[in-house]
Give the backbone structure.
Amino acid sequence: MKRLRITGGTVVTLGPDNRVLPGHDVLVEGDRITAIEPSKQRTSAGETPIDARGKVILPGFINAHMHFYSTFVRGLGKAAPSKNFVEVLRNLWWRLDRKLSLEDCRYSALVAGIDAIRHGTTTLIDHHASPGAVRGSLDAVASAVGEAGLRASLCYEVSDRDGAAVAEDGLAENAAFLDRVADAPDGRLHGLFGLHAAFTVGDKTLDKAVELARSRGAGFHIHVAEDLADQQHSQETHGLRVVERLRRHGVLGPSTICAHCVHVDGAEMDALVATDTMVVHNPQSNMNNAVGVADLFALLGKGVLCGLGTDAMTTNMLEEVRSALWLHHLNCKNPSVGFVEVLSLLLRNNQRITDRLFPGQLGELAVGRKADLVLIDYVPPTEFSGNTFLGHVAFGLSQAAVDTTIVDGEVLMQGKRLLHLDEERIAARARELSAALWERF
Ligand SMILES: [Zn+2]
């Protein structure tokens, strides 16, 4: 069995009892952490050393809401300017996703995967759409995740917006992928049942999705009340608020992720708590689309499990969590509000979310957990301890370079060099594919 000894770093365990341990080694055997101990400053026979002096060793970061498929939009200038969120969807995303080929899906995910490795993000909960190439798209994304060496939960976002046949394909694609993951368990892949959003999924499709997901024991991954338009549509069309409609149809539950929840009221928050449904906050996306600010503190105050995602704005979770801090400071006009709560979205709650998808395996440096680790160049200029750690995350570690990224004990990047992926080749092919996609757009 392959053994790594990561030597002489400052270990930050995260988890429920976060500990900061200067001058420690992490021993990895196979895909697991087998010891965290004061540094021996030498390796034993059969151990491959990784020098972590001058570095902080953390669990790999988790991105709880992502869209790999959006990668090729970078620099696309052809979309008409949009005045609101629904126009953003109509003018840009729904025009783009319809034109994606299976190879586009694969390379979009590969490029995003390289970014993720470079930023130490080792697990991504993705939400995929390619209405012109639905069947096989999750396999295409999964093959890229596998090639990158990352860990991911995948789903296809079912929608009625492209007609009944595409909706049927979306249902079948989710079911097929869930079956594939169940039949051939791959510790790095997980499936959820994807739904785009309540306002593009009619009752018939919703009920079919619930039946398919239930029979497979799967939770859902859906955009909820991202914009006020979702609520308006739900009340006009169904006479119900979004969360209530989803609850009545059986979408909510402890394995379901509701992304955004910007425009949910107190009763909807109560329904999220009562069903133990997960919520993922995406501050940079909400700011970019000008949809509003989620009432994060009310959600947390009621006891909703809220994590942090990027909605494909970045794969850099430290950038995202900093943005969340500033957003809520400004929104509350209070520079002291929610420092611990907001940082905990990433540092604690994302682990609690992945504990429901990959039970007991991720988000914490502890013996027996998966060896998903990141080494960040960081020599603390002030006291670095459990008491001061959050300040270092916000103002120091988030500004430092990720040096090494490890998933399942496999070193994906070391010394800022990708060990398995040929970035030049992947980017060159991505430029060809994106140019052709922009032609079709
Ligand atoms: Zn999203």
Observations:
- Residues 65, 67, 127, 223, 259, 311 surround zinc ion (CB under 6 Å).
